[in-house]
Amino acid sequence: MRWQSVWHRLTHLEWRELDVRDADQWPLGLQWSCCGLLAAVLYAASHVYLALPVAQALEDARREETALLEAYRDDAERAALLSGVREQAVALERHLAELESAFPETADMASLIDDIGTAALEHQLTLEAIRLEAVDERRFVVVHPIAVRVTGPYHRLGGFIADVANFPRLVTLHDVRLAMVEGRLQLSVQARAYNARPPSAGEPGR
Q1: How far is CA 15 from each of CA 27, 30, 88, rounded to the nearest angstrom?
Q2: Residue 203, in any domain of the structure
Q3: Final residue of a domain: which of 20, 45, 80?
Q4: How many Cα atoms sit within 13 Å of 171 on the Cβ side?
Q5: Does 205 map to a domain?
Q6: DSSP alpha helices (H): ranges in the chain?
Q7: Nearest-angstrom CA–CA distance, 88 and 82
């Protein structure tokens, strides 16, 4: 057979006598073998230098696509919740405004004393005394105690206390005492008003 003869020539070939410059004179089987080997080397080289970088880039692109899809899903979920978050933000801003009105930055005690006096008159009480006491400065707020003493019927005194406790500005009542003085019911109470303490030097602002 033809291939047997080619193999016989290759096995009995003197390899040391071969010259690359005379490759066209080599046996046909050797030429085909060299061509096959060269083709295999070229294929391997092209695979390493051309195909592998493209395959790596494709794999990187797939990973990036997966990450982008996950990020898109997260953004879509947050966007679906955005309307609820906005409603919560509006509610928080409204609540913050209410707190700021309850804790003004200035004391404005004159108007507060006027409001207490007006509440006493509206309930037809006798305002016997109203006196500012020592200011108590705390970390975030300044407390302004006001000693109040009024006389009148029990139910009117209760209405007076309710009105003072419901002032738009935060006022708390302490040391409430009731006593009969000369046949009249007397109420002594300490009303405490608050205002936001401004940051001192070296402290961060609000």
Answers
A1: 12, 11, 88
A2: no
A3: 80
A4: 24
A5: no
A6: 2-11, 28-46, 52-80, 82-102, 109-122, 154-165
A7: 10
Tally of CA atoms within 13 A in the half-sphere of 164 that contains its CB: 30
In angstroms, the CA 81 to CA 102 distance is 32
Give residue-wise pLDDT tens across range 52-61.
777 777 788 8
User: Can you give the CATH number for the domain in which 159 is found?
Assistant: 3.30.70.60
Q: What is the pLDDT of residues 33-71, one digit of tens each?
A: 767 777 887 777 776 677 777 777 778 888 888 888 888
Count up the domains in the chain and report the number: 2
The answer for residues whose C-beta is within 8 angstroms of residue 144's C-beta and 6 or more apart is 107, 109, 112, 132, 135, 192, 193, 194, 195
Longest dimension (CA), the chain: 144
Distance in angstroms (rounded) separating the CA atoms of residues 107 and 135 = 11
Burial of 188 (0-12, 13-18, 19+ CB in 10 A): middle
